[in-house]
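Re: the request from the purification team.
They wanted to know what the chain is likely to look like in 3D before they choose a buffer screen. I agreed to run a prediction and write the result into the notebook, where they can find it.
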Amino acid sequence: LVERGGAALQQAARDLLVGIGQRLQAMVDALLAGATREALRPEVIEQMLLRLCEGLARTGLDEKNVTVAVAPGDKDQIAAFALGQLRLAQKRLGDAEKYFRATLPRAAADARLAGAAHYGLAMCLHQRGKARAAIAEFDQAIARVSDAAEFYFWRGLTHRQMRNDLAARNDLQRAAELAALSNPELAARAR
């Protein structure tokens, strides 16, 4: 009787541990699924690509010695956009402009990529002192991605450069509103 009772207790303990293990596994799976969804948000991936390009610019790497594995249909547009970002970070504005312009026709089906390409092109033009052309590209970027604080911020600064104070004030205010939670530093600069 004692042996049977001991065996029953051991089986109950195993069942309890298995149940706890299954519940823990379910909790871990739910946490990982949430973290994965968060990590794969377009904004997060965009920032990762930008950081990659900045790192490549600092180390002097270029398209000759960088390999990226992507779907064949996306390779050209992602490569052109990434090279545009790389050249912009390197202050090679003519090359950056060329790559951003090459991205635009291929990005027509992807509003976020098209917006980012127009923004990159606008930044090239802004840095080259072509304010009117930069404003037109910022307008195109904002038409495709209306919730990007940086787009409004830089368009506002470009308007200010052109002495268009009302448009500058409106854009900087919108940038501050959009960046209030996600980028407090930018929000403070916009105020």
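For the purification team: The first helix runs from residue 2 to 39.
Please add any questions underneath this entry.
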